[in-house]
Amino acid sequence: MLQDVTQIERLRYKPTIQITTILVGAIGGQGGNVLVEWLFLAADLSGFRAQSVSLPGLSQRGGATSYYMEIASLPENNKIENPIAELEKAVFGQHPFPGMVDVLLGQELLELGRLVQQGYASKRTTVVANSQRFYTTSEKMPAFDGRYPTEKIVEAVAQMSGAYSIIDVPQIARQHGLGDLSSNALMLGALSVLPGVLPIPVEAYRNAIQQFGLAVEMNLKAFEVGRSYQIEELQREANATQAKPEPAQDPLPRSLAALPKPLFNANGAADSGEPVPAKPRRTINLIPVAHSSGNRAEKKDVAALIERHSNELPLKWKADFRALTAEIQAQFPEKLHWALIEAAYQCADYQNLAYARRYLKEVARVFKLDSETHAWKLTEAYARVLSMRTTYEDAVRVASLKIQHGRFSRIRQEMKVADGQVLVLTDYLKPDAPEIYGIFPNALVSPMLLLGKLTGIGTWAEKKYFTLQLHPQPNTFSGYLTFAFLTWFKPLRPVSHRANREWKQIGNFTRDVEKFALLDYELAMLVVESGRLVKGYGDTRRKMFEAHDRFVIKVLEVSIKVESKCKTGNEESAYPLTLALGKRALRLVAQDDRGSGWAEQLADWALGEFKNNTPIPEIIKGLEPKAKTLSTKA
């Protein structure tokens, strides 16, 4: 294969012709085809030959799209009598080869990472990318944060490319009043600034945008914004570089100093060992641009938060909410103010201010066991998890969100519904029996469920797993009335059967945190982290309740009992094995339905080794993901 690539290069790269290869990676719906069309038009307007090949995807997260383009140009100040005829001799490729891409454009960061992983980035490659992410299904499925680390992608790009510029395009677009669809033009503007990357003059890009005729005014503005941003970044990096003493070695710019040894020279002859560029092209003198993450830490303005939330709640609650926030600021340390005030607002918006006070009462139980020595980490983490647990999505909550003020106008804007067009919304709901009877008072439901169990009807109904399929249209009178009727059950929520079940679970969770906090602070943090397992609704939520209980009872509590019998009192951590086992087991439980079984298998193995006097460091090493194979029958 290597020899085939060499032969292709010898045929394609004539001594008088420069061929620049461009690869664009995106996801369906981002307009990658538009970006390539602009590049093609700009090359054509510059008097060059170009060819593009695309592999379209779907307008969904699952559809990866790629576009490949080659531009044939002549060197500057050439003395060729018939340039057009000379360019006709260029031989274009139909697809990119790893290590032979000059420009790599990534409209989505993970798609850029895929292309880098496949070997398309090399030291001859200039990367211009959008830091925006559209998360994959596999990233969304885990109970915890399943997102692939952005830092790893950026690090790979920095290591593999010759020069790179990763830009927070959405943030820059928002700062200049531009929409999401302007990202292509903004990236094109950033690319046009980089010296020596493409042979296309800047005016050709502008003319290409105008000739293509798609949202010309907005895209031209975005193009100039991208240029201005990149110019500022290049100048900033240049100033930073000038302030540093130049190294004694490696005098070439990064993009040339790290070029790989070519397989052949510029004339297609066998390589003689001289460090010549891989093919005739302009010298790149580009300073790599630092990654802009857009996640700069901002000082949290608690006063502004209180003011905003006070105005978002009903007017009659405004004074009481401010009084509640004053109590929070008096009772808890400053580090917790933002999280607790935000959570109190969420609870008040979910139910009422009394519900928010009930939430704070639970937080105070854990706060008593925390200390400033640990920077109140336990209380802060518990408060965040409890906020999520107390604002569970029942039928009343779903109904209120479906007819929430602003939902219809937001959908019309997102779907680009023109004035005069009729918009019909249909919501597909499938509540099961517990979700239906869960909104009724517990005093009414519990006796009926007990009677059902005694007669056997309840067991039969559970096996049948009844669901009610509803297709209401909330922007019609009947559909709106259906949802509005459900919201009338909101005053009954605190005494509902669902609330009774949820708050029993919350009480158990809080007692677990208190119990483990008395044993070991880090173990208590782990229990709080496990509380994040419980999310979703319907059968999914019930399964996660079970998974959480199995983790605490069959992994943590069992491990503590075994380890406490052999404690010496000299350990840095009170329960080092339990802590390491718990962290690994929790990751397994969060993966999918089989995780609880895997976690229990792992606990059995680890505690068995511990009973056999295997040193704890060796057991902990064996807990690593690649060190232990678990049965799929779990």
Offer a quick outline of the entry:
With 634 residues, the chain is an alpha/beta fold. Helix content is 53%, strand content 6%.
Give the fraction of residues assigned to helices. Answer: 40-55%
Biggest sheet character: 6 strands, mixed
Task: Specify the number of helices.
Answer: 28
CATH topology of the largest domain: Pyruvate-ferredoxin Oxidoreductase, domain 3
Distance between the termini: 44 Å
Across the major sheet, the strand order is 2-3-1-4-5-6
Looking at the structure, what is the overall shape? Answer: globular
**Total number of β-strand segments?**
6
CATH architecture of the largest domain, please?
3-Layer(aba) Sandwich
Average pLDDT number: 81
Query: Which CATH class of the largest domain applies here?
Result: Alpha Beta
Number of discrete domains: 5
Write up what this structure looks like:
The protein has 634 residues and is of the alpha/beta class. The chain folds into 5 domains: 2-257, Pyruvate-ferredoxin Oxidoreductase, domain 3 (3-Layer(aba) Sandwich), CATH 3.40.920.10; 297-391, no CATH class; 395-429 and 472-489, no CATH class; 431-469, no CATH class; 498-622, no CATH class. It is 53% helix and 6% strand. The protein has 28 helices and 6 strands. A hairpin with an 8-residue loop joins strand 2 (49-55) and strand 3 (64-73). The longest helix has 27 residues, at 216-242.
